[in-house]
Structure to design on (344 residues):
């Protein structure tokens, strides 16, 4: 049965009644319902319990009226079966206990069978497909560069010093790691599609730390493998990064039916760099959700004016929702997008 979804139509650059909208990190600590669950379970426990992960996925769908659901999980979950380890410590973000620094470390990574080792994610997807009805479900994984950066640094990073040092000083180890990660992440994403995800997004959140030459040599072939493997499963694929103004043409070459734009580039300029044969997603600055509603409306309309009714725009933020964002404002943005008319 084909879904009558404006989100899926926009991914395929087909006509829509109004612009579809969803938000990266639409489930999370800015919502009281989520905080209530987090009082009882850690982030990793939520992911490990498919019923709870499904419930958290549904919270923003009910509260906001968005046009797509994104599975509640984390891009770093594959670090657990790989043997790198994963913990979320209070205030510090992710901690990966056995970081990868040498060829030996790469060789010691364990083989991963996503259906078994990350089977709880597929179970959450199967539950959600039974509950979501007309709202499509987005599955996701991290792109090899962004996931590798956490695995090499052992956590979040500003400068990516250890990551880039491996890339520039020990390229053999870098390529061996990217090769392994691209296989694991591709298998993981394909398993999500086969479990029922109707679209997938590949998050290369931090790839904007690279220049185009390095992207082409050290990243593109590996992202391309994942994006192409997902494409073969016949679902739309979203390719997202931030700080990517200089990388957009190469990211398009790597793949994706939809390319994510952050707020640093005007939507029409970004779309021009990419060309008319891809859809785009974006690109409100997440900090604008803390501004007064009239200012937000001006900026939301500016983005929609720049899209100018062209087929294939999905409204989103340029990056994830921030922790203290007012829920009512997020809901108001959904309504602003749905109420907007190009010929107003
Ligand atoms: O609603 C959704 O978007 C789905 C769930 C989702 C989470 N993480 C849950 C989560 C998604 C899509 C992600 C992706 C993710 N995780 C990315 C890529 C997207 C991006 O924002 O760039 C990255 C880089 C991660 C890694 C990660 N996970 C970090 C750095 C942190 C710590 C940040 C913090 O605020 O402490 C996380 C934790 C995390 N993943 C939270 C959520 C809702 C934080 C909330 C909590 O602890 O309950």
């Amino acid at each position: 049965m084909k879904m009558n979804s404006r989100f899926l139509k926009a991914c395929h650059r087909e006509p829509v009644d109004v612009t579809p909208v969803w938000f990266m990190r639409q489930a999370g600590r800015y919502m009281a319902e989520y905080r209530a669950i987090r009082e009882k379970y850690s982030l990793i426990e939520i992911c490990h319990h498919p019923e709870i992960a499904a419930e958290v996925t549904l919270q923003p769908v009910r509260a906001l009226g968005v046009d797509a659901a994104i599975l509640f999980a984390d891009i770093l979950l594959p670090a657990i079966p790989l043997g790198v380890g994963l913990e979320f410590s209070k205030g510090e973000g992710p901690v990966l206990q056995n970081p990868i620094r040498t060829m030996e470390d790469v060789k010691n990574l364990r083989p991963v069978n996503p259906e078994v080792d990350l089977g709880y994610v597929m179970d959450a997807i199967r539950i959600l497909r039974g509950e979501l009805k007309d709202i499509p479900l987005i599955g996701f994984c991290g792109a090899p560069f962004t996931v590798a950066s956490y695995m090499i640094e052992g956590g979040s990073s500003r400068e990516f010093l250890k990551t880039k040092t491996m890339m520039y000083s020990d390229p053999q180890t870098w390529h061996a790691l990217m090769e392994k990660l691209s296989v694991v992440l591709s298998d993981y994403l394909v398993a999500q599609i086969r479990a029922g995800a109707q679209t997938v997004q590949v998050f290369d959140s931090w790839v904007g730390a690279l220049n185009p030459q390095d992207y082409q040599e050290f990243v593109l072939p590996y992202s391309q493998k994942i994006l192409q493997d997902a494409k073969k499963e016949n679902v739309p694929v979203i390719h997202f990064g931030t700080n990517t103004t200089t990388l957009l043409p190469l990211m398009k070459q790597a793949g994706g039916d939809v390319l994510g734009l952050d707020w640093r580039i005007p939507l029409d300029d970004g779309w021009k760099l990419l060309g008319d044969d891809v859809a785009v997603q974006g690109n409100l600055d997440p900090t604008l959700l803390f501004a007064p509603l009239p200012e937000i409306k001006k900026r939301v309309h500016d983005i929609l004016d720049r899209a100018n009714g062209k087929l294939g725009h999905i409204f989103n933020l340029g990056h994830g929702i921030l922790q203290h964002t007012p829920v009512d404002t997020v809901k108001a943005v959904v309504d602003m997008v749905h109420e907007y008319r190009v010929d107003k």
Q: What stands out?
A: The chain has a mean pLDDT of 97.
